[in-house]
């Protein structure tokens, strides 16, 4: 007597949501990171570096 189970796993698959929502999330996240880095660089260029030199 054997017991066979067709599809049994304990790991969950990562599925991309319909309408490429994962791609949009990544684009917004990385765009925000770039904007923050540019703001920090502008602050350094306009306020910190002129006071040093």
What report would you give on this structure?
60% of the residues lie in helices and 0% in strands. The chain is mainly α and 53 residues long. The longest helix has 32 residues, at 21-52. The model has no long low-confidence stretch (mean pLDDT 82).
What would the keywords be for this entry?
53 residues; mainly alpha; 1 helix; 60% helix
First and last CA, distance: 85 Å
Low-confidence parts, pLDDT < 50 over ≥5 residues? none
Structural class comes to mainly alpha
Percentage of residues in helical conformation: 55-70%
**Integer-rounded radius of gyration:** 24 Å
Give the oligomeric state of the chains in this entry, treating copies of one chain as homo and distinct chains as hetero.
Answer: single chain
Which term fits the overall shape?
A: rod-shaped
Task: Please write the string of helix (H) and strand (E) elements.
Answer: H
State the total count of DSSP E strands.
0
Report the β-strand fraction as a percent range.
under 5%
| Major beta-sheet overview | none
The number of helical segments is 1
Overall residue-averaged pLDDT value:
82
